[in-house]
Amino acid sequence: MSPNGDAQGERLIVDLARAGDEKALSELYLTYFPRVYRYILARTGNSHDAEDLAEEVFMRVLEAIERFQWREAPFSAWLFRIAHNAVISARRKESARGRSGQLTDTLPVDSAGPEELVENRLALNEVMQAAQKLPEAQRQVIALRFGAGLSVAETAQAMGKGEGNVKVIQHKAIAKLREMMGQASRKRPRTYERETA
Amino acid sequence: MSARRLEEILEECLSAYLDGRRSIEESLSRYPSYASELEPMLRTATGINFALNSYSPPAHVQQRGLNRFLSDARARRNMKSLQVGSVRPSRFAVTWQRYRLGFAGAAMAVLILAVSVGGTALMGEGGSNDSVFRAGTAEPPTPAVVTALQQQVDTIRTLRASQSLTADDIARLLAAAEALNDASDSEIDSARDSIAVALNDANALVSEIIATDPALAQPAREAQDKIRDVAAGIDVVLASPTPVADTATPVVTPEPTVAPTEEPTLTPEPTEPPTPTLPPPPSGTPPPRDPA
Predict the structure, then answer these.
(1) What would the pLDDT profile of A150-195 be if each residue is shown by its tens digit?
(2) Which domain does B25 fall in, by range?
(3) How many domains does chain B have?
């Protein structure tokens, strides 16, 4: 099942999962866990939070899946609303501690090769740091579009906004990220380029 | 150049790239008059996408989560079948079944004590089974404010069905929703999912009333505004109302005509586009959407 894949296939799997079918539950989990993880990573900037919260989101899914109704929203929009609520709850709990969102060296990177790994980690750190400075709605659109891989229509439903509104927010977010990352690159010596040259 | 048009084109090109239908270069050649603004935006967006999608959860974390997820699902299923499939025994029977050895031991102790010390020792053995009724743990109860809101939603549905709904009933629904403003943070956090469901139900219901009952549209509209305020105040996301009839497939909400909530004008592009330091995606050709 692809992120934007066959709606009927997904419907069947979701309905089976609601009835408790383990194979369907596994399939839903394996399809969405990486996307929920990346969504939370984009929201929090912290890989440990992303691991813990992604697990928690799926526990909440189990609690709520019987109440899921197709007419309200697609499954992905419903799921990422739960993920959003989990992030907000966690943020409330953690705000007193003032934890920072540092990525760890143990983050698994899909691409092979140490040079790419270094570049990707720096790139992700840069995206994370810039994204943390965005207004909430812009950060959420970036996380849903690029972390969760939702379409604009799905993002709109997950956020309870109109598609036109999401396009506006997306445009502003990308423009702001481009500006921030451009500034960061002018200030920072590009050591990793020398290392990998 | 219209900002609105640029947002539309950016999204169109971005979707085409992410779905693997077009490269950035192909998109730029399709919109040559927008190319200078479009290119840096597309490069940034695809760079962000590439950076985020370079990461996957560690395999052991995913496996651990899956095991926990499935075992929790199994436990829920077993619990449900027990609740549905069995005749509930009396409390005395359950208590006796669970603690019969304890009772037997206590009785034996009392007997020995009574024999050795005398009949007065029996007085000290009373109330020893208090813990029986504390055994077992229950899930934290849904806060009363949430239950009240759910009940109001159900009541209004019933009244609508019997065509006896009045503005006062909508006011009561609103009061139930606004009571959430007075709930404590811990109450909100412990029942966030139930609250989200209840508020979404209430929001959907007033949307239906607005769409179908002109006489009550005004109070319903006012109630909807306030319900949305309540939801925003406790960080609960409300779904876009879908006023169409129940359909077999998920409904994509049509694009509303309301103005965007953020600032209405675009920041002008810098004349010299800075180059983000994101490593470029492997090639100019569209990437696979999800490497996981």
Answers:
(1) 999 999 999 989 999 999 999 999 999 998 887 665 555 444 333 3
(2) 3-53
(3) 3
Q: Is residue B205 part of a domain?
A: yes
Q: How far apart are CA B266 and CA B187, in angstroms?
A: 40
Q: String of b and e for B100-138 (b: at least 16 CB within 10 Å)?
A: eeeeeeeeeeeeebeeeeeeebeeeeeeeeeebeeeeee
Nearest-CA residue of chain B relative to A147?
Answer: B52
B125 and B195 share one domain: no
Structure tokens belonging to residue A15 = 């309905």
Instruction: Write out chain A residues lying below 8 Å of B200, CB-based.
Output: 72
CATH of domain A7-196: 1.10.1740.10
- In this structure, the answer to whether residues B165 and B217 fall within a common structural domain is yes
For B256, the closest of A35, A72, A162 (CB atoms) is A162
Would you say residue B152 lies in a domain?
A: yes
How far is A93 from chain B, CA to nearest CA, in Å? 9
Token pair in block for residue B198: 């209840």
Q: pLDDT tens across B219-268, in order?
A: 888 888 888 878 877 777 777 655 434 333 333 334 343 333 333 333 33
ipTM: 0.80
Inspect the interface and report whether the beta carbons of B260 and A88 lie closer than 8 Å. no
| Domain membership flag for residue B32 | yes
Residue B176 lies in a domain: yes
Q: CA nearest A36: which of A92, A75, A93, A94?
A: A75
- Measured in angstroms, the CA of A100 and the nearest CA of chain B are apart by 19
